[in-house]
Structures are given as C-alpha cells and as structure tokens.
Specification:
The protein is an alpha+beta fold. It is 36% helix and 16% strand. The chain is built from seven helices and nine strands. The strands form two sheets. A seven-stranded mixed sheet has the order 2-1-5-4-3-7-8.
C-alpha cells in the first residue's frame, strides 16, 4: 500500500511540473519574445533602478567597460528555486564571474501584489539566506526595464559586453525542467557565453528560448 501511495505521489508531482511548464509556455507574450530576440547585436536598453540593498539608484551606463549579466528573478518561482536552493547553481555562477570582473544584476519586475514582489527588508533577508553573490538586486516594479528587454520568464538571462551591446539572451541552460537534478548534465548557456566573451570570442549560441515562470508584470 505504501508503494502505491509513493507511486501516486510521484505521478501527481510529475503532473504538477508538466502543468506548470505548459502554463508558462502558454503565458509567453509573442511581442516580448520578438523584442528580446531583436536585441542581439544592438545597444542594451538603458535603465536606472533602485538597489534594494543600498537604496541607491543604479544606472546601467555606469558599468560601461565591463561585461554585465542581467538575471530576471522571482524567489518564489520553482525554476528560480531550481538554481538557487539546494543546487546553489546561480550563486556559484555569480561568484565565479563577478570574481572575473563581470557585473551581475538581479532584477525583479513583479508588480505590487504579484508573486515575487517583496519589500526591501524581505529581499535583503532572502538574499542573505540564499547567499546571493549578485552585484546588486534591482527593483523594476513598474516593469519598464523588463518590457524594454522583452524579459519573459524568471530566470531570463542577458549578457552585455563592455561597449553596451547585447551578446546573449535566453535560458540559463539547456534543460527546462524545474528539477535541480538536471543541472549537471545541461549546457549552461550563460557560463558558455561568458567564457567565450571574456576570451575575446564571438558567442556561438547567442539566443535561446528562456524558460521559467512568467514575469509578473502589472497591467
């Protein structure tokens, strides 16, 4: 009987994950998809956003001369948890590449009242609890920056070169499952792209389909 119960629970869990992935795909905005894809090779949209930790404005332009990663985030999203919780995949990437001079900006575009929107104190608590190594955690509650980039999901990743040109946009890796068990065997597009860019090479895979929870924009 216990075996049957465990099997049923496993089937239920798998069904929930499949439903989540299908729901996320259905929520994709074709206009935002087109916008994010059109960014490659063009100047990254500028923004000035408040850092939840310091309370100070951070302008993208201040990082000219450095490679920049933009990571759209929502700590309550299962796909973000995949890379932050037990695996600590995102924190390890942040630590590795900020150690090489890359600026890493986590951005949330969840509107007030939507999943992922937190007060700065709660953001700070979660960042410390998860051991985030991001350069800054930026507040985009009106969604202007997210929409300018065509950010669709959490996570949705972008790489910008020292001249301010977008080199990569899309998924963090090649496996769209919400399970952290898939990370080890997946191709990490962000790590691959950064290694190529930092080595003076052209990024071979510069556009992929981002996966995750839909960004919780306001109306």
């Amino acid at each position: 009987m216990q075996t049957i119960r465990n099997y049923s629970a496993s089937l239920f869990g798998a069904a929930v994950l499949i439903a989540l992935i299908l729901f996320t795909s259905a929520c994709r905005d074709p206009e935002l998809d087109a916008r994010s894809g059109a960014l490659i090779g063009n100047t990254a949209p500028g923004f000035s956003l408040v850092d939840a930790v310091t309370g100070k404005a951070v302008d993208l332009a201040q990082y000219r001369g450095k490679h920049v990663v933009l990571e759209w985030i929502n700590f309550d999203c299962p796909f973000v948890k995949k890379h932050y919780d037990k695996s600590r995949n995102m924190q390890e990437l942040q630590a590795k590449y900020t150690g090489k001079g890359v600026v890493w900006l986590s951005i949330y575009s969840s509107a007030p009242g939507k999943q992922g929107n937190f007060e700065p104190a709660e953001i700070n608590r979660r960042m410390q609890a998860k051991g985030s190594k991001a350069t800054a955690y930026l507040l985009d509650t009106d969604g202007k920056a997210g929409r300018a980039y065509g950010a669709q999901t959490t996570p949705h990743m972008y790489i910008i070169d020292p001249k301010g040109i977008v080199l990569y946009q899309g998924a963090i890796d090649s496996n769209s499952s919400a399970s952290a068990d898939t990370i080890a065997d997946a191709t990490n597009y962000v790590a691959q792209g950064l290694d190529e860019a930092l080595g003076g090479k052209t990024i071979g895979t510069n556009t992929t389909k981002a996966y995750g929870c839909s960004v919780k924009y306001g109306s």
